[in-house]
Specification:
heterodimer; A: alpha/beta; Rossmann fold; 2 domains; 6-stranded mixed beta sheet; 4-stranded antiparallel beta sheet; 12 helices; 34% helix; 29% strand; B: mainly alpha; two-stranded antiparallel ribbon; 8 helices; globular
């Protein structure tokens, strides 16, 4: 079973500052979502509302169609894993994992198996863990929560690349076995792009986009080939990113390519692929473009 | 820490019991050390001078502050941990009530039992069993007198627990929440003076502020203390229910 998410007119203020402004958002159950946004855009605040860490100043937050605030039936099945996790630092790793058993759905055996696979030292105190190992502990507790709505907020920070890769693989494997709603908030956009089904972009407290990944990727194109042919193919289009290696050039452009341009580019030996999510994100949240 | 067979319906109680058992286990060494020290100290001191005062009196009364610290220090860091683990604030408030009752009851019962055991030891050695009460010590002439003094301890511990919890949750809720000590600490000290009529430790103004409490009778002291516990617990719960979890520091 998975949880859907619904926000209606949600605003959250920190004193005079509006961290989120009038957000309307619906997330279907059983998908993996990417939550993207620049620093301070409101990603963590949004997740905090879904996990009842905070109450909105205005509006309504519903998970599985039910209000989330102080709702034990719901929050016991919602997991928000923040950067570094939330643990009693004086406890050892095993005790920290056992605290997860406050959730009826928590799978301690799975948590201990993951701890072994990720080489977490069970007897070490949480405060003595390196940043990377602490992140692993947080990720393990989030996976083992087996929560119908599981959210990871920059949980990868401090993990090295192989560990991140294993985490994503484990997340995907467990998701396939036990489908649930997953939200990944991250700045490592291209790293997680392959796992995402839909993408939510927040910018300065407002919802900027919520689209399937394919729809976003169709908002532009990446053209790679001989430099001159690529330049001809993208002439007149808005360039998002550009790379050159010797005589080969790769250009990411905004906007869909018409059939004629595609045919001419292909005939000139230019390969056309979907736009990189990160390039598109940079473009969409560009302050000059959004009028900041 | 929690029971592996936890269900949603009982977890708030089970969690409260777990907090108590884990807390007792965590501090077992220090509790045993205090007991052993209080038992050995008069035996050692008796080699050099006469024994005129209870040794157990000091750890038993220090236990009040220990209990307040347990409540406050637990709540402050554990609030985000508990919410992140899928607990509601209401459930945490209930778990804290269970912890407070069990902790105060168990520690209080232990304190009473050890006062009585100490009295038996002092009688066996022919020492004077007394406690400090203002300028003149108050001797215990019988087990009944010991019980009359020490039976208040579980209630006193609970009063301190509620005070500590109130300070802990207010400190988490607001940046200047710790200022709640301004009404809480004098109230707790005043009521403590009213119920056990021993001299309050601390600066002179503490003593002056709490002196009127010595005049209270048993019933008013009991009623006022129970009322303070109920009101304090209600206030702590109210603050807790509205408390947002703080953003993590970068």
């Amino acid at each position: 079973m998975s949880f859907s998410v619904s926000l209606r007119g949600v605003t959250l203020k920190y004193r005079a500052t509006e961290a989120l402004s009038d957000i309307d958002l619906d997330l279907e159950a059983g998908k993996i979502y990417g939550l993207l946004g620049r620093n301070g855009a409101g990603k963590t605040t949004l997740l905090s509302l879904l996990a009842a860490f905070r109450r909105p100043t205005a509006g309504e937050v519903r998970v599985d169609g039910r209000p989330v605030w102080e709702n034990a039936e719901v929050v016991s099945r919602v997991a928000l894993v923040r950067e570094g996790g939330d643990f009693d630092d004086s406890e050892n790793v095993r005790s920290a994992l056992e605290t997860g058993e406050l959730r009826p759905s928590f799978d301690l055996d799975y948590a201990l198996r993951l701890a072994d696979e990720f080489e977490l030292p069970l007897k070490t105190k949480v405060r003595e863990l390196s940043r990377g190992k602490r992140s692993v502990l947080a990720a393990v507790s989030g996976l083992a929560a087996r929560a119908e709505l599981t959210m990871f907020d920059e949980v990868h920070l401090g993990m090295d690349a192989p560990t991140r890769d294993r985490f994503y693989s484990e997340l995907l494997a467990d998701y396939m076995e036990r489908p649930r709603t997953v939200i990944l908030s991250t700045h490592l956009i291209d790293e997680v792009a392959n796992y995402l089904e839909e993408v939510v972009i927040v910018d300065r407290g407002r919802l900027l986009r919520h689209d399937p990944l394919e729809a976003l990727q169709g908002m532009g194109a990446a053209l790679t080939g001989p430099a001159e042919a690529v330049d001809d193919a993208v002439a007149g289009l808005e360039t998002l990113a550009e790379q050159r290696l010797g005589g080969t050039k790769s250009v990411t452009v905004a906007g869909a390519l018409d059939a004629g341009r595609r045919e001419r580019a292909a005939a000139a030996g230019v390969e056309i692929g979907p736009v990189g999510l990160q390039d598109l994100f940079i473009h969409l949240t560009d302050p000059e473009r959004t009028g900041a | 820490m929690p029971d592996r067979n936890v269900t949603l319906g009982n977890r708030r109680y089970g969690f409260g019991v777990s907090l108590f058992t884990e807390g007792m286990r965590y501090f077992a060494f220090w509790i045993v050390a205090a007991i052993v020290l209080a038992a050995l100290a008069p035996i050692v001191v008796a080699q050099f001078r006469s024994i005129e005062i209870s040794a157990w009196y000091f750890p038993a009364h220090a236990g009040k502050f220990f209990t307040a610290v347990i409540a406050g220090v637990f709540l402050f860091p554990m609030l985000p941990v508990c919410i992140a683990a899928g607990l509601t604030r209401r459930e945490l408030a209930t778990a804290m009530k269970v912890l407070g009752l069990l902790w105060s009851g168990a520690l209080g019962a232990l304190a009473v039992a050890l006062f009585l055991a100490e009295h038996a030891m002092y009688r066996a050695f022919g020492w004077t069993h007394a406690i400090e009460q203002g300028p003149v010590d108050r001797p215990f002439e019988s087990f009944g007198a010991v019980l009359e003094h020490s039976a208040w301890l579980p209630l006193t511990y609970l009063l301190y627990f509620v005070g500590g919890a109130l300070i802990g949750v207010a400190s988490y809720r607001w940046d200047l929440g710790w200022l709640i000590i301004v009404p809480v600490v004098p109230t707790v000290l005043f009521l403590q003076s009213a119920i056990d009529r021993t001299e309050v430790w601390g600066p002179d103004w503490f003593k002056r502020a709490t002196e009127p409490a010595y005049e209270w009778g048993v019933a008013p002291a009991l009623i006022a203390t129970v009322a303070a516990i109920v009101v304090g617990a209600w206030a702590a719960r109210r603050i807790l229910l509205d408390t947002p979890i703080r953003a993590k520091q970068a």
